[in-house]
Request: fold
Amino acid sequence: MDLKIAGKKALICGASAGLGLACAEALVREGVDVVIAARTLEKLVQAATQLEALGTASVAYVAADVTTQEGRDRIFSQHPSFDIVITNAGGPPPGDFRDWDRDAWLRALDANMLSPIAIIQQVVDGMMQRGFGRIINITSSAVKSPIDALGLSNGARSGLTGFVAGLARSTVAKGVTINNILPGTFETARLTSNFAAAAQRSGLDAAQVRADRIAKHPAKRLGHPDEFGAACAFLCSAHAGYINGQNLLMDGGSFGGAW
Reply:
């Protein structure tokens, strides 16, 4: 299927690895010119080289922390205009809410709610003026099925979800859709580190923690990043103009509810 977005320009945050990189790769394959952003320059250069090897679109990169105003300013001073934007930032650490002080909450809100909103604020009016825009926020399956230990993430990402639900209804008539993708367990370096941390806490081997998690999963496997990237690319496509204000849960059926 031709997604009819060749020649569009996209910003993908957190794109040096994992799900952000998978989204960037899927868009590049569709002929979308991309700007990828992440904090670590070395990993970013490696990701850009990988994307350039596809030979189907231009690739630029900006080393920046998008959860800070300085980082966002660095991106938009070099690339002020985008047709597609994918926000993506790692979640705050797990823990007990009794241990979280005000600063911990503010850091979580800055990274997983206020920063995506600031990016949307920067791009949405230009998209509406041009009559086309796609904004995708990578959040978490915990928005749909909250996890006690991830209270910081639950709260901050749910705040973003509520904000998007309101804003999206005011942009779609101008050709701009805003949606969220809620990933469950995908085969990424971050998930591997989570398994290692869980193993350390429990005294088990990391491979056993991983096997136990997969055994409990309805799909009996982890998600593949390219599956996530393909779904993201479709939501960015010309064919997805009537999908708006939605939360696409990609967890292989882990959530037990009907809706």
About this structure: The two ends are 28 Å apart (CA to CA). The chain has a mean pLDDT of 94.
